[in-house]
Amino acid sequence: MDATAVAAARGLAAGAVVRREAVLLPALFGGFQAGMAAVGWLAGRWFGAAMERWDHWIAFGLLLLVGGKMIVEAVRGDDDEGAPDGDLWTLLGLALATSIDAAAAGITLPLLAAPPALALATIGVITAALTLVGVAVGARAGRHFGSRLEIVGGLVLVGLAIKILIEGLA
Fold first, then answer.
1. In 15-115, alpha helices (H)
2. 20 to 30 A Cα–Cα from 58, which one of 2, 100, 134, 162?
């Protein structure tokens, strides 16, 4: 759901589905979710405790930076026709930020009755599908309500960052 919220925020900021992001975000978010769950599954006991100690701080920092940047650009009017900064590094950072907790969750994969490969594929496909829906819904709302929704998108990312940090500290 974090990936869906971030994708919707990206769509809001663009005001229209940016084809590149409509392809890249689902691929990156789905791939990172499945990949990080695989890392958690493989790393297991050795890396699991360290991951749980730091995952929320890393996700918090990355989402706060991207969300804050979106807000600042919207207030300053620094955007290029409402399109968010969609460089590959930004998209990779968002994919990483939304998937770090999947590594910690991946530690539990051996407890499932399903084969790990099936579980990982399911995680990736569902995340990709929900990301695509998030981008499309966000873009439609952005077209309907105007470019000021970039601020809303940035606030969603900041709020998500705070939520992840609070949950991680609890």
1. 19-76, 88-106
2. 134
